[in-house]
From TrEMBL:
PROSITE patterns: HTH_GNTR. This is HTH gntR-type domain-containing protein. It comes from Actinomadura macrotermitis. GO terms for molecular function: DNA binding; DNA-binding transcription factor activity. It comes from the Bacteria.
Length: 237
């Protein structure tokens, strides 16, 4: 009696392996090229339906494949996503890179104003919530999960912005973060440079920034926010 595919104790590990195998096919094909049907690719990977679906979810989240239904459908190598360079990483986007790059640039320009407000208006409860988010950033950094790290980072900046008494400034900043976050598909390494050391360094910087806000240390906060502003723009690969 056939029991089908038995994925063993680590379905997540098998899904990652299947995703990497299909990602290898993507790297060898032109954008938009057909990779095969779901059944063909699942058989190639030798995994169960549930494991393959998890692998497919990972590939779509990373912007590597698209799925088309119907005759002639299946999995296709995704069209190249526009990207924006962010420190030692790149954001893969589903929108025009110029729009998102401009939003990041404006957001960076507003950061010193919001940090200045936080120095004077952040309450002990605000600081406690900021530190909880920083701790979450640390866990993402240790796990090497760059996408989770960046989204948590933006949540920290939004929490800092919420301490400002200026409604227009808060609203503008939140709108910029929403635009950036809603169009970010994934966070990828920039070339061959590994992300984990960069994530740990950025976690330290944000932890120090929250400490400076808590201590009302204007000089330290100004130095850290200058160090923080490392955004450069890059054309699509």
């Amino acid at each position: 009696m056939s029991l089908g595919h038995l994925d063993g104790p680590s379905t997540t590990g098998r899904a990652e392996q299947a995703a990497e195998r299909i990602a290898g096919l993507v790297r060898d094909r032109e954008p938009g090229a057909r990779l095969g049907t779901k059944n063909d690719l699942r058989a190639l990977c030798g995994v169960s339906v549930s494991t393959f679906n998890e692998a497919l979810r990972l590939l779509q989240a990373r912007g590597l494949v698209t799925v088309r239904p119907g005759p002639g459908g299946g999995l296709f190598a995704a069209e190249q996503s526009p990207i924006v360079r962010l420190g030692n990483s790149v954001l893969a986007l589903d929108a025009d890179q110029t729009t998102v790059a401009e939003a990041i640039r404006i957001r960076d320009a507003l950061d010193p104003l919001l940090i200045e407000d936080a120095l004077w208006h952040a309450s002990p409860a605000d600081i406690a919530e900021m530190r909880a988010v920083v701790d979450e950033m640390g866990r993402s950094a240790e796990a090497g999960d760059a996408t989770a790290f960046v989204h948590t980072n933006w949540r920290l900046h939004n929490r800092i912005a919420e301490t400002s008494p200026h409604v227009l400034l808060r609203s503008l900043y939140a709108s910029l973060l929403d635009l950036i976050e809603s169009h970010t598909l994934s966070v990828l390494p920039d070339g061959d440079e590994p992300l984990p050391p960069y994530l740990r360094e950025r976690h330290r910087l944000h932890a120090d920034l929250v400490d400076a806000i808590a201590a009302h240390d204007r000089a330290a906060a100004a130095r850290l926010i200058r160090e923080h502003s490392t955004v450069k723009h890059r054309t699509p690969l």
